[in-house]
Amino acid sequence: MEYSPPPLFKQGPSALARLVFFVVLALALLISDARFKTLEIVRGVLGAGLYPLQRAALVPRDVFMGAADLAVTSATLRSENDKLRTKDLQLSQQANTAAELAAENTHLRALLQLSQRSATQSLPAEVQYDTRDPFTQKVVIGRGAQQGVQDGSPVVNEDGVIGQVTRVFPLQAEVTLLTDKDQAVPVQIVRTGLRSVIYGTPKGDTLDLRFVPISADVQTGDELVTSGLDGVYPPGLPVAKVVRVDKQADTAFARVICLPVAPVRGARQLLVLHYLNNVPPRPAEEPDAATAAKDAKAKKGGKPADSKAATDKAAAKPAEKPAAAAKPAEKPSTKPTEKAPAKTAATEKKAVAEKKAAADRSAKPQATPGAQP
């Protein structure tokens, strides 16, 4: 009969081993997703699957908001109606002026043979909820890849820039607000045309205009608009207004504090822009002369010394040519002097040979008088 221990006494992997296994698995998933984006598809599938649950969870809020809208008094509606009429008149005047300016701009561009700027398409969207991370300034809108939202598209409202799309799901998209500490927008000052880059701050309530020299003409109240040089934001969108300028003698750049023009946290209805920039791509950068010379020396190794010797030889050749040209004139005078040494050497050899023969003769042994063969 096979015996098995009761469930209470069954032994398996220890708690420490399971802890180590799951920690290693979590680290592997984090590293693979951060470096190779391996979980993007899984994240998109989960986002699409949880979308109905999110909509169901937001039903009480929508019902409450609808009841609050119905409770608005008629006096508030009349005042808002009067304001909208006044604003409508102002916008109609601005529209007429803009039409005249657009016609004049078209004529001038045709006269100067400049290319027309591409039209910017927009897609309306509504903020659904904030993200879970309290240390970031991000919201989620109810438009995704199926509605044509693209990664990196700018997001605006009627007042100015709100943020930028940083992550796209099939039915939703994540928008990083303008005040986020990792968000940067190229801007320029309307009054002076000075270009710089504006960043969010860790607190998320102000903006920091960086890389502004102390000598730059920046004043409190200056308006900042997008420069359009990055190819992401259309030029001329209102971004912020300067509220404080601190210039210190010990730093090269001034500290410029700005406030966003648009209500970044209070906006509900937004516009997602699809901006197409027709500017040709940036040309490839060519290495400068110093870098090219260093690369050539690194490749050749010891050849620079040889090239230097060759240069010295080439410099010495012009000095040798006059000497070579002078050789033909010296030949007639050198031939007689070369024959005399040759004859002298032959005479000396003959005398040495005769002396050697005489010495051999004197060295032969002489016969003794009493010796018989």
Automatic annotation (TrEMBL):
Record region (Disordered): 279-373
- Protein name per UniProt: Cell shape-determining protein MreC
What InterPro entries does UniProt report for this protein, alphabetically?
Answer: Cell/Rod_1 (IPR042177), Cell/Rod_MreC_2 (IPR042175), MreC (IPR007221), MreC_beta-barrel_core (IPR055342)
Keywords of the record, alphabetical order, are: Cell shape, Membrane, Transmembrane, Transmembrane helix
Name the residues that span the membrane.
Answer: 12-31
Q: Where is the Rod shape-determining protein MreC beta-barrel core domain?
A: 129-273
Q: Which family does it belong to?
A: Belongs to the MreC family.
GO cellular component labels: plasma membrane
One GO biological process this protein is involved in is: regulation of cell shape
Identify the NCBIfam families for this entry.
mreC
Q: Which residues lie in Basic and acidic residues bias regions?
A: 294-320, 328-363
